[in-house]
């Protein structure tokens, strides 16, 4: 099974899911949060709300929540950039769609494990640091994908990306 999360698909899904919330989901949507989202707590703070995280850690957290006996939600943090994505997901109650593509089928999953989101630009670094230090937070995670690496002219590798 392949998870389809290209930037093009992300943009289309965000556009399709404008104003998405659990109250207006059609009954035909089979894969949606079965838990009370008001009862989840942001026990994970994730730095960098990218496609890899949305299609893996947040997806699997959602599946654990659907199994019950769990209240672990995620606070998404974008320190640099990502304002458009965070602003759009806030409009849809932090719900988004993951599309799993198999050889002969496609299944859409509404993911509800994201409880809240923070942006350095609008919320400030102090609020983010307070969230990371909150006693209910058990995990602070981040994802470093190929976008986190770059090369200097001549081939020397940089660990920090300056734009």
CATH topology: Rossmann fold
Evaluate the radius of gyration: 17 Å
Order of helices and strands: EHEHHEHEEEHHEEE
Number of self-contained structural domains: 1
Helical percentage = 25-40%
Please report the distance between the alpha carbons of the first and last residues: 35 Å
Question: Describe it for me?
Answer:
- About 30% of the residues lie in helices and about 25% in strands.
- By secondary structure, it is of the alpha/beta class.
- It has a single domain, classed as NAD(P)-binding Rossmann-like Domain (Rossmann fold).
- The protein has a four-stranded parallel sheet with strand order 6-3-2-7, with helices on both faces. Strands 1-4-5 form a three-stranded antiparallel sheet, sandwiched between helices.
- A hairpin with a 5-residue loop joins strand 8 and strand 9 (about 155-160).
- The longest helix is centred in the middle third of the chain and has 11 residues, at about 55-65.
- The chain is globular, with a radius of gyration of 17 Å.
- The model is unreliable at about 1-20 (pLDDT under 50).
Concise overview:
Helices cover 29% and strands 26% of the residues. The protein contains 6 helices and 9 strands, in the order βαβααβαβββααβββ. It has helices at residues 7-16, 51-55, 57-67, 83-91, 120-123, 125-133; strands spanning 2-4, 41-47, 72-78, 96-101, 106-111, 114-119, 139-142, 150-151, 157-158.
Task: List its salient traits.
163 residues, single chain, globular, 3-stranded antiparallel sheet, Rossmann fold, 29% helix, disordered N terminus
């Amino acid at each position: 099974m392949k998870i389809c999360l290209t930037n093009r698909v992300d943009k289309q899904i965000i556009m399709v899911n404008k104003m998405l919330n659990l109250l207006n989901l059609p009954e035909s949507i089979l894969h949606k949060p079965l838990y009370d989202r008001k009862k989840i707590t942001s026990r994970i703070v994730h730095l960098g709300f990218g496609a890899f995280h949305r299609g893996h850690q947040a997806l699997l957290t959602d599946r654990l929540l659907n199994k019950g006996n769990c209240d672990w939600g995620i606070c998404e943090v974008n320190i640099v950039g990502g304002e458009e994505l965070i602003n759009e997901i806030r409009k849809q109650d932090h719900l988004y769609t993951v599309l799993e593509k198999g050889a002969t089928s496609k299944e859409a999953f509404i993911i509800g494990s994201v409880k809240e989101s923070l942006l350095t630009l609008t919320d400030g670094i102090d609020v983010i640091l307070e969230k990371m230090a909150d006693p209910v937070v058990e995990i602070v995670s981040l994802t470093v994908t190929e976008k986190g690496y770059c090369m200097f002219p001549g081939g020397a590798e940089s660990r920090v990306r300056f734009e």
